[in-house]
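Reproducibility note. Readers wishing to regenerate the assembly model reported in the main text can use the exact inputs given here. Chain order matters: entities are listed in the order in which they were concatenated for prediction.
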Amino acid sequence: MDLSRDALLDAYRQMRTIRGFEEKLAELVTAGKLAGFLHLYAGEEAVAVGVCSHLSDRDIVTSTHRGHGHCIAKGVDVRGMMAELFGRSTGICKGKGGSMHIADLDRGMLGANGIVGAGIPLATGAALTAKLKRNGGVAVAFFGDGATNQGQFHEALNIAAVWCLPAIYVVENNGYGEATPTEFVTPVKDIAERAASYAMPSAVVDGMDFFDVRAKAGEAIARAREGGGPTLLECKTYRYYGHYVGDPLTYRRKEEAEEVRQLRDPLDLLERRAVEAGVVDADALRAIDGEVAAELEAAVAWAEQSPLPTADDVLRDVYVSG
Amino acid sequence: MREIRYYEALIEAMAEEMRLDENVFLMGEDIGLFGGTFRATEGLMAEFGGRRVRDTPIAEAGIVGLALGAALAGLRPVPELMTMNFAMVAMDQIINHVAKMTYMFGGQCKIPITIRAPGGGGTQKAAQHSHSIESWFVNAPGIRVVIPSTPYDAKGLLKSSIRSDDPVLFIEHEMLYSIQGPVPEGEYLIPLGEADVKRRGSDLTIVAWSKMVHEALRAAERLAEEGIEAEVIDPRSLDPFDWDAVYTSVARTRRCVVVEEGWRTVGVGAEIAARVQEHLFHELDAPVQRVAAADVPLPYARNLEQAALPGADDIVRAALKITT
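Running the prediction on these inputs yields the following structure tokens for the assembly.
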């Protein structure tokens, strides 16, 4: 195991924070405390955390409508995120963005994005900046299997390949595009095959396994930093909650999510591997569970107590110059 | 003062800004090796190289999306769309992303992008290459719309647009690229949102932009022969819009004709007419007149194209209707 105890505990803490954050949101929606259109990342934690474990603030990520996990993995403050979801002035976007538009430019997080596939050219442009400024940075686009049927996916990968940009394209293939099974709408068995059209290296990754994500993302990111150009990584993963909170899930077997949870849960897998390797013990992980739960409770309390935006705020921020 | 062509003024503006700021770069279809479909980037690849003058695939959504990502990460991109009509292919990036992002993210990012594209008909390119669709973008908050009519304005406004930290859609006109006009040597800037009075007059105000400024000036000469002195106001940018300049002029002339090359229905002219009557209802001696394109996809045949597009004759007719 190439990871130190501290690095493993950090990864576990981030994954637990994402899981807890999403479970908390589901609870708040059910309790009628949160509005909005929420797409939860629970089940996919190993992808965001595995990839972002190689990134720093100078590196850029773009995200999707299912963006909370990418934000947390990129270091965005969970209190600011929670306040954003509560529509408060202390929110990371002052309450103007909501779940699908959380962004934190200082962390290199160019935004969750409500348009499927549209973050992909943004990451590609950020990769162009890194290349032209020669700053050693890379850009990662996270997106779903459904986005790979959008034109913007193909336009961006084509340009990234022809310009040899330091971009990493991470497909989170959770088996469904909105409420339609991937195989209904996508002819290739593995989306990674699509990289061949752009003469781009690719890999199929077990997106439930933090260690597999970390290893294959590490290779791709190192290649990008060294000037070797872009990579397409297909992470096979799963979303526990369906497309959005309240999804009636008529398109999948009732038992499916529970079966995945029992056999392939990314937090369980990480824990089992780390404990078996003797790098961490279960007590340390339970302590983290408690700290994360407390942190999230505090974030909710802080968000609920935060002031609402004022009526004047509605007209601000359309332009930066008056 | 020396005279240069509209496209040469654009080249000078880009070259000067690229010399001043290494973050400025160009990208678009056929802009580098070929020098641009309308010669507006001629010579720039030779001076600045392929790193900063980037030939792209034919992929408009990708071009605008990449420009946005590059801007968010710290560059100052000037992407070109070969015609305004191709902006429709990139509409998601232009409206859902470029225009909305500063607001959606609570003001935490600036978006210093200038998207250049020519609009306009008159060269028989027919319905998918000739439309003037500036009204669509003026309708959307968050993106500036700049639309110069002369070489002087083109240079000064393009330089200001490139320096703007808000996104700008910079709309050129295919029929204007070759016109000549006075442009001083050396640097100058024209602030966005300042109208220019292209002709002084006291009997009516004609508001027109882009190629329609020239049609309005021709119309004004003909009206002058009949003893009617028209003032021609060129707003030069439609967002921000210099409402004061229009109100001040109309308050004095008490009559107004608005001219645009785009479709009449829900055009920019409709907005101007509405605001003028809201602000100056009691000062007006006649209803505000609108001259615009016919509400049809632009036809190919020369006589049909001319019939669909507005011109000096239509402006004269509208002016006479409210002055005699």
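We highlight two features of this model. The mean pLDDT of chain A is 97. Residues 5-307 of chain A form a domain with the Rossmann fold fold (CATH 3.40.50.970).
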